[in-house]
Amino acid sequence: MYEPNVVGDWQEYDEHAGLRVRVHRLEAGEPPRGRDDAAEGLTYFSVRVTVENRGDRAVGIHLEDGQIDVRIGPDGESAFIDWRNSQFIEGFDVYPLRRATAVLYAAGPEAALSHVDVQVQLRVDEEWAGRRLWAGRVGVPGSAAGAPVGACRDSLAHQVSVFLQEQAEEGTA
After folding, report:
1. 123 located within any domain
2. In this model, does residue 144 exceed pLDDT 50?
3. What pLDDT is stored for residue 99 in this prediction?
4. From the centroid of its chain, how far is CA 47?
5. How far apart are CA 92 and CA 76, in angstroms?
6. Are 121 and 11 in contact (CB under 8 A)?
């Protein structure tokens, strides 16, 4: 069974040697140029998509509106995307050992933000790369803070958090 990436994971592209992408910093926050009137009553959040070139040649990157899809809630409904506040990568040459980051502002009902799926389809040198999917939640990265009791009990992030807390407690004894 196919499992999506967790927000923060890097995903490499086999068809473009050295190129990798990740979705990260999924967090609540207001957009810099003010709220869109159409998002009234919704909770804003931002997500960053970073493309890194570890190859040996420069590649032209396009990551524009329509290439990032954000779905929220258990039913995977489309989030409101604030195109005016978002910053995309439009025809940028990413040289070896360099990165480029897009910042997307979206909004949705607060109750639905415990399930966020972000799908990215990158265009590299005028060629479409395969779609990649990341799953996460709005809040503190790698933490179950703010989640209902038991909501993240079996998640990898929760297991890591518990392990680190146990290690810290052993070190203080």
Report:
1. yes
2. no
3. 97
4. 5
5. 31
6. no
